[in-house]
Amino acid sequence: MDRFYYKQNRLKQLRAFCFTAQFKSMSKAAEQMFLSQPSISLLIQSLEKDLEQKLFLRKGPRIELTAEGDMLFEMSLPLVEGLETLPESFAEKCKHSIVGRLNIAAVEAIILYTLPDIIKRYAANYPDVHIKLDNSSATIGVEKVRNGGVDFAIGSTLSVPDDVVYLPIYTFEPVLITPIGHPLLSNQHVNMHDISQYGLILSPQHMSTWQMVDLVFKQYNVDYKVNLEAGGWEVLKKYVENGLGVSIVTDICLSGNEKLGRVPLSEYFPKRTYGLFVRKGKVLSPAAREFIQCIDRNVMERFNAESDQIKIDSKIDIQAIQPHVNP
Q1: In sequence order, what DSSP letters do the residues of 19-83 get, joined into one string?
Q2: Right CATH number for 98-169+273-314 from 3.90.1150.10, 3.90.70.10, 3.40.190.10, 3.40.50.150?
Q3: Which of 50, 144, 222, 242 is the most buried (most CB within 10 A)?
Q4: How is 164-217 classified by DSSP, letter by letter?
Q5: What is the pLDDT of residues 29-65, one digit of tens each?
C-alpha cells in the first residue's frame, strides 16, 4: 500500500529529493515543502527503493549525493522547476501576461546604481510581478543561486563554481577619488607612491575592494595607510568629500554630481566586471527571463546558448536510472 502511494506521488518524491540535494539538508527541504523531516526522509527512502539506487551518502549531520544521485538530480531538477513555474508559464500563455515572484540577489553597487532604472522599466511593463531584492555579497549570492534561494544573482567574483553559469554584463574602470582641490589632482601622472602619501578610506578588510588594493600596493612594493574603514560606497564618497582621506573605487558609483576629484587608475588596477550568475540547468520563470531581457537581450541569448551546450555536453541517458517494477 505504501509503495503504491508513493509511486503515485513521484513528483513529491522528486521535489523532496531535489530540495534535499540543493540545501544538503533534509530539515531545510522539509521547511521548503512544509513537511516534517521524517516525511522527507520517507519520501527519499521510497524513491531510492523504487529506483534501486542509493541517492545520498549520510556522513553524520551532512549528506552528499552519490554518483547516481548526482545523475538523477541533473535529470529531475529541470522537470521539478518546470512544474514549479507552471502556473506562471500557463498564465503567460493564456493571458499573454507575466505574473508571479522574482527573487534576485545582487551586490549593493548593482542595487544602488544599475538596477533602479531597469526595475522601473520592468515594473511598468510587468506590474503583476512581485520583485524581491536581496542585498548580498557575490559569494553569498552565488550560494543562494546554487541552493535555489534566488532566481539569479548579479555580482563580481574571481571564482565560479562548476554548477553555475557566469555571464559578464558590466565593466567599470578603477578610479582614485579625492576632495576637490586635493594636491594629487595637479599631478599629470599619479602613481602608487604618490597615493601612498595620503591616508586611504576603504571598505572593510574582508571585502574584495580592500583585498585588491592591498594586492596592488604589494605588487609595487609600496606601503600605504588606511585612515578609515567604512562600508558602502556612498559612505566612502561622503567621507572623501569631507576631506578625511582619499579612496579607490570603480566608477559604477560615480554619477558626476559628487563634489569629488577623479583620477583614472586603469594603469595600476584591473577593471571590475559584474555579471549574471545562474545555476546550470536552471529553468527560468517567465518573470526571470523577461527581467534578464531588460538588462541585456544578448545576455539572455548567451544563457540560452550555454544551456543548449550543457545539454549537448552532458548527453544524459534517461535510461540510466529506471524505476524498479515488480513482475
Answers
A1: HHHHHT-HHHHHHHHT--HHHHHHHHHHHHHHHTS--EEEETTEEEE-HHHHHHHHHHHHHHHHH
A2: 3.40.190.10
A3: 144
A4: EEEEEEEEE-EEEEEETT-GGGG-SS--HHHHHTS-EEE--TTSHHHHHHHHHH
A5: 888 788 888 888 888 888 888 888 899 988 767 788 8
Cell numbers 600605504 correspond to: 224
Please list, in sequence order, all residues whose beta carbon lies within 8 angstroms of the beta carbon of residue 37, skipping any fewer than 6 positions away: 26, 27, 30
314 pLDDT exceeds 60? no
**CATH number of the domain at 2-84, please?**
1.10.10.10
d(CA 129, CA 131): 6
Domain 2-84 and domain 98-169+273-314, same fold? Reply is no
Return the DSSP state at 253: G
Structural domain spans, the chain: 2-84, 98-169+273-314, 174-270
| pLDDT tens digits, 12-22 | 888 888 888 87
Q: Which residues, including other chains, have CB under 8 Å from residue 324's CB and lie 6 or more apart?
A: 49, 50, 51, 52
Cα dihedral 311→315→316→320 (10° resolution)? 170
Confirm if 279 and 163 have CB atoms less than 8 A apart: yes
pTM value > 0.90 = no
Second CATH level (architecture) for the domain 174-270: 3-Layer(aba) Sandwich (3.40)
**Three-state DSSP state, 63:** strand
